[in-house]
Amino acid sequence: MTDSVAVALISGGLDSMIAAARAREDGHRLLALSIDYNQRHHVELAAARRIAQTLGAERHVVLPLDLRAFGGSALTAEIDVPKDGVGDDIPVTYVPARNTIFLSLALGWAEAAGARDIYIGVNALDYSGYPDCRPEFILGFEKLAELATKAGVEGEPFHIRAPLQDMTKADIVREGMRLGLDLGMSWSCYDPAPGSLHCGLCDSCRLRAKGFEEAGVPDPTRYATIL
């Protein structure tokens, strides 16, 4: 156990909520960072605010960074979100360099705040194939942080914590239950349906529903379409 501070990236989704809760369980005081990148599923930020408050974050920064200026993704441009199932290729919902950008921002705040631990909810088993969710990326960014910062150069390295890295979605759901979280307060859908419903068909919805089903846990999510 520790009494240090950690920065947790909280998108509003299931994974980031559980990763942030793990930071708290590890004994860290919590600084929560969410990025308002003008994403299609902007509603996730309301979930992020609820999660940060529930987890007792000492401060929650929602940082504006309009990635629609770049586009290149179904989440930041007028490109249809795929609804035909999780494929093998990197989908158009991949936002170019998103986790690199987000971790860089978290790193900046962590160094300013004296934090040396950054928590992110990536996993590389049940996911959409994004390259910036892989263990190699996390290890590479940790090395980058050591090279790129005053703290790292002076022998105070940063640790990028990805506690869900090797979990399936079912494992993640079970972990959320173990931590006593209200999983229904999270938001996963990339293409929200009218009435504040998850669409039920995008990759993120399919993976979420699969996780609850395989975990044997009732799914609190309200879907517009149930497969």
From TrEMBL:
CDD domains: QueC-like. Its cofactor is Zn(2+). Its EC number is 6.3.4.20. It comes from the Bacteria. Binds 1 zinc ion per subunit. It catalyses: 7-carboxy-7-carbaguanine + NH4(+) + 2 ATP = 7-cyano-7-carbaguanine + 2 AMP + 2 diphosphate + 2 H(+). It holds the Pfam family QueC. Signal peptide: none annotated. The keyword Transit peptide does not apply. Keywords: ATP-binding, Ligase, Metal-binding, Nucleotide-binding, Queuosine biosynthesis, Zinc. ATP binds at I10, S11, G12, G13, L14, D15, S16, M17, I18, A19, A20. One of its GO terms (molecular function) is ligase activity, forming carbon-nitrogen bonds. Pathway: Purine metabolism; 7-cyano-7-deazaguanine biosynthesis. GO terms for biological process: tRNA queuosine(34) biosynthetic process. Zn(2+) binds at C189, C199, C202, C205. NCBIfam families: 7-cyano-7-deazaguanine synthase QueC. Belongs to the QueC family. Catalyzes the ATP-dependent conversion of 7-carboxy-7-deazaguanine (CDG) to 7-cyano-7-deazaguanine (preQ(0)). This is 7-cyano-7-deazaguanine synthase. It comes from Sphingomonas psychrotolerans.
